[in-house]
Task: structure prediction
Amino acid sequence: MRVRPEDLDRSDPEGAIAAAAKRVSNWGRWGPDDVRGTMNFLTDERRRSAAGLIGTGQSFSLSQSFDMDGPQKGWRRRTNPVHTMLDTGTDAVAGVQGFPHGIGGADDVIAMPLQCSTQWDGLGHIFDHGRAWNDRPADQVVTGLGDAVTGIETVADVIAGRGVLLDVGRAVGDPAGELPDGFAITVEHLEQTIESQGGTSAVGRGDIVVVRTGRLARARREGWGDYAGGPSPGLSFTTVDWLHDTELAAIATDTWGFEVRPNEFDVAFQPLHQVAIPHLGLFIGEMWDLDALAEACAADGVYDFFLTAAPLKITGAVGSPVNPIAVR
Result:
């Protein structure tokens, strides 16, 4: 089924969410005890096949920095990382560390929300009317002790496979390769991008798709501004059927919120998340840095690569920082 943005009733987000959830739900698809959702599409065979995509060995980190100069402004207590030194070279030279025979060292600590920079949303991150992934009661999944069922550690060893870049910013955006804030990326835009990029952009079961909008490039040029939480290009709510039908393992963007902001309803907050995570079981990445990779892909016309993007193995976490590595 293909729903167009103009088909949406802007006054009825709840109705649109309920209808979409009914159409695309993966509840029970992998059994009542499943905790990996769409990561089930990323099999050992697909990982082995993806390794064959490595040609030059050129690698790209798709992570933003984790430091005090990040985009966060404190919304819902999300702050930028605070990095503190526990031991330093100054301490070593001063001879105050107490170690024998002249040895010295440095140690440090970092305090940060797990979703303050490049990250994965886990399956315990979003609920729909109190239901979590696979139709579980949310209060029996995530408590003050963390996510005891679908914690991010459940996929710590599987997120490696074929990555595909869809550079929508370059394919349908302005001459700088950027989309304006509020631009809703539709299925037609995704298909146009795939067609313009060629055969290596075809996407399907088990792939990890990364969508470049150019929003991060603009933030680098103009300053963070409202990058975190403000208006942004992103996926249209109407892509939910495409996300389901293509059987992706995961999808990530260079934006803070993945979906278009403002959202496509009069009163709404992240409606695509509300279907994609608890109903599809889809892993969503946000704030990925795709610019250098996009330049390399545009230069030789090859848009698929081996991608590894393991989350930190933080027991019970509903999201995780990540340093994705694309190898071409």
